[in-house]
């Protein structure tokens, strides 16, 4: 059986961006895997990794290093609608940009759409 272990995000400032998600959602650092070009956070079910731009060369991805636009969407699930509503203004105060205020989707989730401080798209979700 396969499982998702990590989603890695390329970041200009791995310390600041990993700190944003760590502080906002209470994710735990994984110090055993930290390096000058990588930080990891344990989300409880999988992990989020943050790669510095130097990782493009390490992974032989230099020619694909165009990170403009919406290339992925992180979805962070929380326990309640109230938690979505509580976290959105905190995220904005921490430097996120609110794209779509909390709303109920046609697939019965309550969610908000935001950009993190490096303009990566993420949603704060609660499945109704």
TrEMBL record:
Residues 3-127 form the VOC domain. It comes from the Bacteria. Signal peptide: none annotated. InterPro entries: Glyas_Bleomycin-R_OHBP_Dase, Glyoxalase_6, VOC_core. It holds the Pfam family Glyoxalase_6. This is Glyoxalase. It comes from Stutzerimonas decontaminans. The lineage of its organism: Bacteria, Pseudomonadati, Pseudomonadota, Gammaproteobacteria, Pseudomonadales.
């Amino acid at each position: 059986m396969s499982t998702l272990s990590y989603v890695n995000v390329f970041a200009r400032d791995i310390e600041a961006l990993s700190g944003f998600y760590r502080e906002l959602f209470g994710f735990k650092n994984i110090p055993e895997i930290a390096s000058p070009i990588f930080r990891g956070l344990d989300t409880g079910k999988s992990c989020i990794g943050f790669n510095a731009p130097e990782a493009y060369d390490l992974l032989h991805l230099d020619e694909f290093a165009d990170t403009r636009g919406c290339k992925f969407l992180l979805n962070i699930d929380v326990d309640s609608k109230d938690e979505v509503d509580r976290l959105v203004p905190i995220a904005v105060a921490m430097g996120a940009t609110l794209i779509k205020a909390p709303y109920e989707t046609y697939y019965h989730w309550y969610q908000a759409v935001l950009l993190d401080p490096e303009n990566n798209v993420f949603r704060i979700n609660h499945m109704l």
